[in-house]
């Protein structure tokens, strides 16, 4: 007896419409299976949409993928374009040749991207021997080689530590501000992107759940994260929902804006307060709320 799994057709994207101009940045957000990677691949001309149309500089990326290859850079998290037996420098030279970079121009671009992404110490290392973070920095270098006008980045921070993330975000901010590069970035790791990207597209099961300014994305969340640091360890029972850390010196809680004055008064009555900070909800917290609704 042979069993065959029934095929089910899934429409990965439905009614997704947006446009971006030079120097704009879009955070592509959503849970697993929301359609983020599919949208990136459609924009890059890797997938052909059954309905609707996509235009990059007025051209269909599926039909004119070769012509557009030098105008956009692509990073697909988890899918490497590096040849494993070649060194990082040899990979850069190979892709430079594919992009049409030759001679002094190719050498200059390789030096520039290597310096920008701190690749010089590993230029002679075979791609197969790179750590995950090193490999992703090398992948981003490939995307930057042709000096693209558009960057399509799907999970570009995989394997990067906090310092590496900050370095890449600073680089993206520089490219956006000084060269007018347009950014579309899909990532589950959202800390820091607000300083680089000003708009957000949230996908839920292939449909647009939100499209607008990142600042408006927070609208409707009725809490702030309050952090209180005491001179002496906190001895009392913490308020409901609050957490105590650093040996009792630090208390954090989610508090609605109108309740913050009363909350701080209670904290002042419980001990000597050294420092207080009130922060907007992080993008991760905002996404948690969106994914639950």
From TrEMBL:
Keywords: ATP-binding, Nucleotide-binding, Transport
Magnesium found in the keyword field: no
InterPro entries, alphabetized: AAA+_ATPase, ABC_transporter-like_ATP-bd, ABC_transporter-like_CS, ABC_transporter_ATP-binding, P-loop_NTPase
Protein's UniProt name: ABC-2 type transport system ATP-binding protein
UniProt domain ABC transporter: residue ranges: 1-230
GO molecular function, one term: ATP hydrolysis activity
PROSITE patterns: ABC_TRANSPORTER_1, ABC_TRANSPORTER_2
């Amino acid at each position: 007896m042979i069993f065959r799994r029934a095929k089910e057709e899934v429409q990965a994207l439905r009614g997704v419409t947006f446009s971006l101009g030079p120097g704009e940045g879009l955070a592509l957000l959503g849970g697993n299976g929301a359609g983020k990677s599919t949208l990136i691949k459609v924009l890059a001309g890797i997938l052909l949409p059954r309905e609707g149309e996509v235009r990059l500089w007025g051209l269909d990326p599926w039909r004119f993928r070769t012509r557009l290859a030098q105008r956009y850079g692509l990073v697909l998290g988890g899918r490497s374009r590096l040849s494993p037996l070649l060194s990082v420098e040899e990979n850069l030279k190979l892709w430079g040749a594919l992009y049409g970079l030759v001679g002094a121009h190719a050498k200059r671009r390789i030096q520039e991207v290597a310096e920008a992404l701190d690749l010089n110490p590993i230029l002679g290392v075979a791609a197969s021997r790179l750590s995950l973070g090193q490999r992703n920095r090398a992948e981003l270098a490939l995307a930057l080689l042709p000096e693209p006008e558009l960057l399509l980045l799907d999970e570009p921070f995989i394997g990067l530590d906090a310092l590496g993330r900050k370095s890449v975000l600073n680089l993206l901010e520089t490219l956006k501000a000084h060269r007018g590069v347009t950014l579309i970035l899909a990532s589950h790791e959202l800390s820091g992107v607000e300083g680089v990207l000003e708009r957000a597209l949230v996908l839920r099961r292939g449909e647009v759940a939100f499209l607008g300014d990142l600042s408006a994305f927070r609208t409707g969340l009725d809490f702030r994260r309050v952090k209180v640091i005491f001179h002496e360890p906190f001895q009392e029972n913490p308020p409901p929902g609050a957490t105590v850390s650093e040996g009792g010196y630090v208390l954090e809680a989610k508090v609605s804006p109108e309740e913050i004055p009363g909350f701080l008064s209670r904290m002042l009555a419980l001990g000597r307060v050294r420092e207080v900070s009130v922060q907007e909800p992080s993008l991760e917290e905002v996404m948690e709320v969106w994914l639950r609704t």
